[in-house]
Fold this protein.
Amino acid sequence: AQTVTQSQPEMSVQEAETVTLSCTYDTSENNYYLFWYKQPPSRQMILVIRQEAYKQQNATENRFSVNFQKAAKSFSLKISDSQLGDTAMYFCAFMSPINNDMRFGAGTRLTVKP
Amino acid sequence: GAVVSQHPSWVICKSGTSVKIECRSLDFQATTMFWYRQFPKQSLMLMATSNEGSKATYEQGVEKDKFLINHASLTLSTLTVTSAHPEDSSFYICSARWGRSKIQQYFGAGTRLSVL
């Protein structure tokens, strides 16, 4: 079974600075999908970014980018120019196209300080 | 983007009663829906996967007689917590996958269940 590990329960960053959230996963599959989701206090899950394992190029979405290291099974999220609205829980998720279900890491609580 | 509506957002019930939570895909046909449970300050744990017109597939350790899932149409799935007890109090989240895509999942806003 696939597992997703987020080793940073909590992190904080000053507004306008850059922060990196870590995620590692374990799988024997070669093709899969990785996601970062944001869960603000409203608890609505919001997709931040996704990466297909067969793509070598790291995904980017405005201030959000990933560092995908397939051999190391690492998928970190970098948030640039942090904003107060980025304060939330961030979940890393893995999805296999074989069984199609999504597995989440334990989450990292990010606080952006003014 | 696609919208998934979950209702109710918060429900309080007495121990021993049953509670039904609805999950609707408003602007797309969801061939697959997922139900998650989230305890305070914890991650989302997959409870079951339901495909339209067929029985739900439950994760190991999830009581199928306690958590009844029905996916009767391409836009509606329901989760019924039967004979609820205080330990069933939690945050329940549904998500739906668009039929044409096997990647993107859209999440409902969640339901907070409090069993007294």
In short: The interface with chain A takes residues 32, 34, 38, 41-46, 49, 91, 93, 95, 97, 102-105, 107, 109-110 of chain B (CB under 8 Å). The CA atoms of residues 3 and 46 of chain B lie 20 Å apart.
